[in-house]
Amino acid sequence: MPRINLDPQTAERLIAGRAGEPADLPRGAAEVASILDAARKVVTESDVSRMAATVAAMRDVLVPGGAGAPASVPARRPRPSPLPKVLSAGVAGLAVLFGGLAAAGALPAAAQKPVADLVSHVGIDLPRPESPAKPADNPTAAPTTSTSTTSTTIPVIVGEPPAQAPTSETTVTAPACPPPAYQSANGCVTPLPVPETTTQPPPTTTTTKPSPPPTTTTSTTVASSGTQSGRYRGDMP
Amino acid sequence: MALGEQFTDVVDAARAGAPWALEILYREFHPAVLAFLRARAPAEAEDLASDVFIAVAEGLPRFEGDEDGFRSWLFTITYRQVGQLRRRMGRRRTDPFPADEVGERVPPGDAESDAMAAIGTQQALDLIATLPPAQGEVLLLRVVADLPVDEVARIVNKRPTAVRALQHRAIVGLARRAAREESARDEPVKEEKSESSP
Questions:
Q1: Percent of chain B scored above 90 by pLDDT?
Q2: Which end of chain B has fewer CB atoms surrounding its CB within 10 Å, N or C?
């Protein structure tokens, strides 16, 4: 067995790769230098046989659930065209508009009659235009129709029986205003009815102090003031 | 080869899970890790190397430092992986290494210099693997991982003077082994010469 005599400084130079010329090295150092050079060379040999699997595993750790997904921005879904919605809305709007006009009989006569005939098959009765009367042929028809239209506001009055709303078919003179309505320049006007005496019943949930019975004064006040029936009671001074 | 100035960008992208950055880290550092593991645990080297890089991914969001710091951290993980494997498999002086393969792996040569110059990387690692574990690990961390004495001392939890002593003994041990191999190759030649002489 040959004697090996390598000092620590030589060992450090061999490890650092600064051994120098083999002739200048002590016995055995040249062989060690060759071994260490070969060991260093292994770090430059890349083994990529497992790289794909290892990198995928690393990515799973760093981005949970992101394996196989591209790191770039996810693809956008194509935005649907708004044309179908616009067309649907347009058709619906036109249907409502012409439906309303047809129901009110406000379509032109040339269109009202076909529409009325068409929808009559499904059980909807729409007004049909009569033979159109030209204003020049019947000059008195226009104001008569206007008067009848005005009278259609009458039924909103409480207690008044609904007036017969004349339609455009009405070409006769307006009927006389039924009493107590009276004829005015704007048509029939019905005076406001005098409200009946409204006596509020005493509250039933009174606990200690019984509510006083309603007096005649209260009833009169309510009747005269109208809007103040709930603010004053009979026990007030 | 080092990443140099692009190291910070690569690590930042790797933290975000960019495959290209993870591949760069793998290509740059995997060979050294695998070389270390082949010398310390040949049968488990490939699997352990994958475990090391997965552990790197787990700790990458918390890593702070430059490329030298990354290398030191990487081999700290590698060293601990070997230690865990050793504890799992029981304490053994060296990993199993078939004795009959030693002669086959040392390349036969016509001359000493040719034989030693032609030594392959795996043969070199195999020779280092025959050293006592502490010496072999210190030598691998110095040569393969290219770490300074202080970093090696931190990784193996020893003082720098102890590391220098270990690496010195490792070098002497390698020289003896190389001389032994040389003597073994010379014996047949001497025998032939003695037989041919009258």
A1: 56
A2: C
